[in-house]
Amino acid sequence: MQSEPEMTVNRYGRTSDERYTPKGRLRSSVYEAEMERLQEQLVLLQYWIQSQGLKVLVIFEGRGSAGKGGVIKRITERTSPRTVRIVALPKPTDRESTQWYFQRYVEHLPAAGEMVLFDRSWYNRSNVEWVMGFCTEEEHQEFLRSCPEFERMLVRSGIVVLKYWFSVSAEEQQRRFEARNAEPVKRWKLSDMDLAERELYVRYSMAKDTTFQYTDIKQAPWYVVPSDDKRAARLNCISHLLAQFDYEDVAPPPVELPEVRDIPYVRPPMHEQTFVPQLY
User: Fold this and answer.
1) For the segment 96-119, what is each residue's pLDDT rounded down to a tens digit?
2) pTM, to two decimals
3) Which of 25, 60, 92, 203 could make an S-S bridge to 96, C-beta 3.0–4.6 Å?
4) Beta strands in the chain (DSSP E)
């Protein structure tokens, strides 16, 4: 039987255990061990989705720097891109702007045996577009009316719809933006939209609350992931995702590798090929 973690009281007066740092953040060693275990389970879930012909749609939303990309990367790190696909659409083209709003998203919905991860989704309309003035108030109101019905249609068609909202505090967002700004290799992550989002933090809070008011429906509820601790947020989100499926281990057994056929053939000399410099 696994022993209980040793409980202590840190210098902030909060009860903690050995899994956490004095500041209450999950330790790297704990995170890495648990992430490895969860990623193994994601592979098993992948096989189960394939075998059962499930259609799974997972939506990731939240503020800039909230950690959506990090958890998506960990979900797909060990899984097959043929089964677990990422959809991250750019801003609509002039033609797409004249289409039914949901139209360009529909073609990316999962078929049988697939799990699709939307890195932002149709909820751009009720968040980024509304806050930044990229849509009219009428378009915003129509989205709030039609989105719940659209998602109910998806669920009735057999698609499993999971929606995660990554929630980051104003203080932590500021720290992450400053960290990006301080490192040239990360500065590309700090876009003009991020700067505008920072300035309009309260407005984005209003947008999120309104979105939840209309679209947190029984058939496709929102799940909030507190993400000030990125490591904990990733583990919590993936654990919850796995818990939504009563899956079994249907991974195929090891295959027998065939022997190389002995076919008469003389290869050209190696010196006729151009190799990259051996710097390492």
Assistant:
1) 999 999 999 999 999 999 999 999
2) 0.90
3) 92
4) 7-9, 15-17, 55-62, 84-87, 114-119, 159-167, 222-226
